Amino acid sequence: MKLSLKNQPFLLLLPCIYCTDVIIKSSPSANEGVIQTEVEKTVTLSCVVEGSPEKEELQWYRNDRLVSLKEENSLQQSHLCVEQISTNDNGAVFTCQLKTNSTTKASILLEVYYAPDLNGSEEVRVAEGSDIALSCDVRAYPPVSVVWKKEDALLDLSSNSYHTSNNGITAQLSISNIKHYVHEGLYTCETSSSVYGKNSKTFSIIVEDKVMKFPLGPMIAGLVVVFLTILLALVSRRKKIMKCFKRTVLH
Q1: Among 91, 198, 90, CA closest to 145
Q2: Is residue 90 a part of any domain in this protein?
Q3: Are the C-beta atoms of residues 236 and 229 closer than 8 Å to each other?
Q4: pLDDT of residue 239
Q5: Could you report the average pLDDT of every consecutive run of 10 residues in the chain (251 residues)?
Q6: 149 and 99, same structural domain?
Q7: Can you tell me the distance from the alpha carbon of 18 to that of 53, in angstroms, rounded to the nearest whole number?
Q8: What local confidence, expressed as pLDDT, does residue 17 receive?
Q9: Looking at the domain assignment, is residue 92 inside a domain?
Q10: Does the residue 127 lie in any domain?
Q11: Per-residue pLDDT, 19
Q12: How far apart are CA 58 and CA 106, in angstroms?
């Protein structure tokens, strides 16, 4: 099919002479808009305006919060230095945009790799018949899997006395109605990951005999009442006692 422009309005296609764009460069380098780094490392970000005949003012945002910049660090190019990367920086999005046109922007995402902070051991003393909860900090990126063990063997969770939970931040083992012969021993919270291997924390549970608790406060109050009652009785009978004493002396 042949297209004819005869008797058609004149169409003029113009190339984009001034196409303003914003580009972010980083160290370490980003891969498809994502920077992978580790805790306590440093990330530098550089934002450059391209294709504008005039000097443009730039703005940086961390997630939805505006980053304060010095004036000399905001015209045509701008630099950010994120030092001492922490776990709180994981998932943070840094966006550079034109102040006069927020649609002209570029963004970069931080992925902070860190292992779960699990180590050492803890001794836990608990009275027989009571309940207890053991907790482990399992925060990590990438996330890790968690298992509970007793005496180095996987814990049998079919028992109604054991309940586990894990919200990606804290893994918890709850034990109810603790008994000497069932629950005393060494428990382990163990995480595993293809990146960090295995990490663990141990809890040594010692079950003590149940101590009968006496209501000390009411008991003391009762003794005080009895003492005052006896004292008042003695005072009220003082005259009779004295007369009886005098008669005994006369005889």
Answers
A1: 198
A2: yes
A3: no
A4: 60
A5: 42 56 95 96 96 90 95 93 95 96 96 93 94 96 96 91 95 95 96 95 94 64 71 66 55 50
A6: no
A7: 7
A8: 54
A9: yes
A10: yes
A11: 81
A12: 11
**Residue 209: its pLDDT value, please?**
87
DSSP lists the bridge partners of residue 98 as 58
Q: Are the C-beta atoms of 43 and 92 separated by less than 8 Å?
A: no
Indicate whether this model's pTM tops 0.85: no
Token pair listed for 46: 């550089």
d(CA 187, CA 173): 10
